[in-house]
Amino acid sequence: MNLFISMKYLVALDDHRHFGRAALACHVTQPALSNALRALEEGLGISIVKRGRNFVGFTSEGERVLASARRMLREQELLQQDLHSSEGHPQGQLLVGAVPTAMPIAARFVALLQARHPGIVPTLRSLSSVELETGLESLALDMGLGYTERMDHSGQALRVLPQYTEHYFLLRRADAGGGADSGTNYGTINSTSNSTSSGTGSRAGSLRAAAAMRWRDAAALPLCMLSGEMHNRTIVDRAFAAAGATVQPAIETNSTVTLVMSVLAGQVCSVLPGALLGTVHGQGELEALPLVEPHVEVPIAFLVHKTNRPSRTLDAAIAFAEHPDWLAQAVMHSRLPGG
Predict the structure, then answer these.
(1) CA-CA distance, 309 to 311, in Å (whole number)?
(2) Measured distance CA(337)–CA(339) in Å, rounded
């Protein structure tokens, strides 16, 4: 029995919570993975996996073995990085998680980091806030991009690397703007600092910038919103409550793609943070309206476990996350394009 390979299979099973998907991730057959885990159980003289028709979870002893497996694999990765890296040239894996609404910024970060350090091989995963916090705690992640306001309740010793501030917009079809001939008033607020809903100031074929809208007026529209388990939904609901409004969504989803596609294909609007607007920058039939009264600002940061001994790749990632050039990009791409 190869202990490191068995530990790798065990961690993969925890990551994917499914024998078949864990086997695929490890590039082996499901019987090979299952046999290796049974051999590990026999070698240690304990039951590690709770078995049923499907994966159920780990026994209490299995949870302890899993924690040791993550530490062992982390130490192995640290050693390999130390052996194969040189000064200024880190080599190895970097595991990054991000909440769904921050994925465009996270994707840009790992792409630019890899271009800066070609020896780094990033893996970027879209995770809920709870999954991100769990991943940091269990050492399944090196760093995570998420909401700093949750740190008051997490109880973890995390280092915070501030990145940008999330602002919120209503996304709708431009032909739903309630012009003079439509007879519909969507509660926009005229402002000399914003383009009007007719698209003045926006390039043809690009997402249009429109006048601000009050949260309470947005609440009266048919909305596609993130589902209740997403922390972003908590923020949005809090803003509606502060405006004295309640919302009954027309569509709920845990997918940020659905937030956009439902507006493009259907008759609904969506509430989006600025970081997601870049994904629809080329959609000239859509317009984004800043949401006001209240004006919502939510800090987003990279989170790193303080107790971790940083790897060479994590050291490089932290340095890049704090670099002024990158921070300027993060701020620029978290706003309404051209705003």
Answers:
(1) 7
(2) 5
pTM for this structure? 0.79
Answer yes or no: are the C-beta atoms of 223 and 247 closer than 8 Å. yes
Would you give the distance in Å from CA 168 to the centre of its chain? 16
Per-residue pLDDT of the chain (339 residues; tens, 9 = 90+): 688 899 988 988 988 889 999 999 899 999 999 999 999 999 999 999 998 778 889 999 999 999 888 888 888 887 887 887 788 899 999 999 999 999 999 999 999 999 999 999 999 999 999 999 988 888 889 999 999 998 766 566 788 999 999 999 999 998 866 543 333 344 444 433 333 334 444 445 788 888 999 999 999 999 999 999 899 999 999 999 999 999 999 999 999 999 999 999 989 999 999 999 988 888 888 999 999 999 999 999 999 987 667 889 999 999 999 999 999 999 999 987 665
**Angle, CA of 80, 84 and 90, to the nearest 5°:** 100
CA atoms within 13 A on the CB side of 261: 6
Q: Which domains does the chain possess?
A: 1-70 (1.10.10.10), 85-166+297-339 (3.40.190.10), 168-296 (3.40.190.290)
CA distance 167 to 151: 20
DSSP letters, 23-70, are: HHHTTS-HHHHHHHHHHHHHHHTS--EEESSSEEEE-HHHHHHHHHHH
Phi/psi-derived region of residue 338, left when phi > 0, alpha when psi is between -120 and 50, beta in every other case: left
Q: Is the peptide bond before 104 cis (omega within 30 degrees of 0)?
A: no
- Spell out the residues 6+ positions from residue 94 whose beta carbon is closer than 8 angstroms to its own: 110, 113, 120, 121, 122, 123, 142, 143, 311, 313, 314, 317
Going by C-alpha positions, the residue among 90, 100, 96 that lies closest to residue 123 is 96
